[in-house]
Amino acid sequence: MKRDPRTVILEPVLTEKSMRAHEKSNEVAFVVARDANKIEVKRAVEELFKVKVLNVRTMSVAGKTKRLGRFEGKTAAWKKAIVTLGEGDTIEFFEHA
Prior knowledge:
- It is built from four helices and six strands.
- The strands form two sheets. A four-stranded antiparallel beta sheet has the order 1-2-6-3. A two-stranded antiparallel sheet has the order 4-5.
- The protein has a single domain (5-86), classed as Alpha-Beta Plaits (2-Layer Sandwich).
- β4 and β5 form a beta hairpin.
- The relative contact order is 0.24.
- By secondary structure, it is of the alpha+beta class.
- The protein is globular, with a radius of gyration of 15 Å.
């Protein structure tokens, strides 16, 4: 069963490091569903943004322990995907960030 691309790609990662990677090697980073695999991420990006995806790298980011006074909690774990786009392909959202 094919998943809806909007449930696979959750949001872009807009950090200095991801912007530098976009400018240098045409890579974009997204927060993706924790159960999404590389094939689903590739299909979702190609369908949503009408670009050619050359490579997908995924990584699970562990939640961090945070304290506020004597109270301790944990931030949510999440999954990140770094997508390499084909030559000449761009995603408008990252161009204006």
